[in-house]
Amino acid sequence: MKLTAYTDQRQLTVPFVLAREGFDEVALTCVELSEGSHIGRGEATPKPFLGRSPAGDLQELAAIRPQIESGTISNDDLLELLPAGSARNALDCALWDLRCKQEGKRIWQILGLDEPTDPVRADYTISIDTPEKMARAANTLRDYDLVKIKLNAELIDDRLAAVRHALPTAELFVDANESWTPDLLQQIIPVLTKHRVSLIEQPLPAGQDAALDTIDCPIPLAADEACKTADDLPMLVGRYQFVNIKLDKTGGLTAALHLLHAARAQQFKVMVGCMIGTSRAMAPAFVVASQADFCDLDGASMLKQDVSPPLKLGAGRAHSFAAALWG
């Protein structure tokens, strides 16, 4: 087996802005595993807030090259070889893809799952901008019945009012990306209720989850930055109703499925999200999303250039993907 790892830089169609950062390009960690005539591919997005970088990913992968190229390492072995994060995600997904090609099976068959015949409910994300520009973005999403709005601690009422006016019937989620304080969350609940927000994602910084014990919030809360792997779930029970599973946090499809099953066992509802990347990163996340309550896999549609064939996303639905893409 041969391991090839490299960084792929991709441009966004427009800048993407959330509470912690704004950017107009993204660096992707790409892995190819070749054995004989078969090539398995995986992709991930290293993010500094998770302690990841493109150079760091390549260093981690180079350090275990001998074990990987021995051809004896399984997906479960990777859970011990590498920490949770983007490097393990790209490698784990490449291993799954290679196995599918070697066995001539789809990922659903290998995992013992039924491939979804119906599309999965999906949202689209509006990033932070002026209320007027966010309203214009919302106007392009009239065929979506679920829209996520990025917010920080400023202009919350104005931004929500603008989007709600443009989308009077859509279900709205908000994502503060750790930018609110406990006091602001408590104060802003009437505003969120007025605009019929149905989910709040990661309002407080990860690690401050205990502050939610003193806040009476009638709107369900979703843990994103506070939930990386199944090990985080005990601290989230009673504080959040949803967890957001992202393969770049769990470190691959293998660990994401572990988190999915553990979250279900502890009565959490599940959403599946993504960083911005190509459809090659969305496809393995879709495997988890097909078993979740909804998916947030719009990352590839924000790029100027995606891979082909793409994961189809539109009209508020994500569709199952072709074997030519992944798995």
DSSP E strands, number: 14
- Under CATH, the homologous superfamily of the largest domain reads Enolase-like C-terminal domain
Overall mean pLDDT: 97
N- and C-termini, Cα separation: 18 Å
Strand coverage percent: 15-25%
Query: Which CATH first-tier class of the largest domain would you pick?
Result: Alpha Beta
What is the CATH fold-level name of the largest domain? TIM Barrel
Which value, in Å, is the CA radius of gyration? 19 Å
Description of the structure:
The relative contact order is 0.15. This protein has helices at 54-63, 65-69, 75-81, 86-103, 107-111, 131-139, 156-166, 182-194, 247-250, 253-265, 279-289, and strands spanning 2-17, 22-35, 38-44, 120-121, 124-126, 146-150, 171-175, 197-201, 221-223, 242-245, 269-272, 294-295, 313-314, 317-318. By secondary structure, the chain is an alpha/beta fold. The chain folds into two domains: 2-105, Enolase-like, domain 1; 120-318, TIM Barrel, CATH 3.20.20. Helix 1 (54-63) packs across helix 4 (86-103), helix 6 (131-139) packs parallel to helix 7 (156-166) and helix 10 (253-265) packs parallel to helix 11 (279-289). The protein has eleven helices and 14 strands. The radius of gyration is 19 Å and the shape is globular. The model has no long low-confidence stretch (mean pLDDT 97). A hairpin with a 2-residue loop joins strand 2 (22-35) and strand 3. An eight-stranded parallel β-sheet has the order 5-6-7-8-9-10-11-12. It has a three-stranded antiparallel β-sheet with strand order 1-2-3. A three-stranded antiparallel β-sheet has the order 4-14-13, with no helix packed on it.
